[in-house]
């Protein structure tokens, strides 16, 4: 399983932007689909976005579509989540998940490796 480390979270005002990164040391990371999930206090973990191993296919939750962009740099073993026009309801701990499959998925159970999470707080 890949070791994943998220970074880039923080406190931002509504309307602002953040870019999250998910870095892995394992070379096989480039063969894995990756997804971002988030969990707000008192709520279940929910799907945010996913990207295929090659980066050619992406998918977003309706709540973030047109505001968030997922991308990857397989040469650097990093996946990014660019978050624009942030809203208070985007406040959550954001987790990246990877592999072992190469096809993108929205399902928590399809991912075997998880990062520790990074906090995103959007103030109104």
Which properties best describe this structure?
mainly beta, 7-stranded mixed β-sheet, single chain, 49% strand
Could you characterize the architecture of this molecule?
By secondary structure, the chain is mainly beta. The chain is 0% helix and 49% strand. The chain is globular and about 40 Å long. The protein is built from no helices and 11 strands. The protein has strands spanning 4-7, 10-13, 18-24, 34-39, 46-51, 58-60, 68-73, 78-83, 92-100, 111-114, 118-123. Strands 2, 4, 5, 6, 9, 10 and 11 form a 7-stranded mixed beta sheet that branches. Strands 1-3-8-7 form a 4-stranded antiparallel beta sheet, with no helix packed on it.
The unreliable regions are none
- Shape verdict: globular
The percent range for helix content is: under 10%
The Rg value, from CA coordinates, equals: 13 Å
Annotate the secondary structure layout.
Blueprint (H helix, E strand, L loop, with lengths): L3 E4 L2 E4 L4 E7 L9 E6 L6 E6 L6 E3 L7 E6 L4 E6 L8 E9 L10 E4 L3 E6 L1
Parallel strand pairs: 2-11
Antiparallel strand pairs: 1-3, 3-8, 4-5, 4-9, 5-6, 7-8, 9-10, 9-11
Would you kindly provide a brief summary of this structure?
The chain is mainly β and 124 residues long. The protein has strands at residues 4-7, 10-13, 18-24, 34-39, 46-51, 58-60, 68-73, 78-83, 92-100, 111-114, 118-123.
